[in-house]
Amino acid sequence: MTTTWQGPRGIEVEVIQLNEKQLFKVTQTGPHGRFLLDYCATIAQVTRHVDLADLVEVIPLPRSHGAP
User: Can you tell me the distance from the alpha carbon of 2 to that of 4, in angstroms, rounded to the nearest whole number?
Assistant: First the structure.
């Protein structure tokens, strides 16, 4: 399961594995879709794009089998 945070202005930060390295993938959703902003190796690099205090973790909830 991927760890994901969302921030203002459509910013999304995901923890990913790329070439056997753990990185933070920073993307932004705009009027024409989602765009890659950066692959960051450290949290300090993520702060160039978004204030960490503005991020909220996305926690997927289990789906109910009886729900429509």
Answer: 6
What lies within 8 Å, CB to CB, of 31 at 6+ separation is none
58 sits in which H/E element: strand 56-58
Question: Do 4 and 13 contact (CB within 8 A), yes or no?
Answer: yes
* pLDDT tens digits for range 7-42: 999 999 999 998 889 999 999 999 999 999 999 999
pTM (two decimals): 0.83
DSSP string, 2-41: --EEE-GGGEEEEEEEETTEEEEEEEEEETTEEEEEEEES
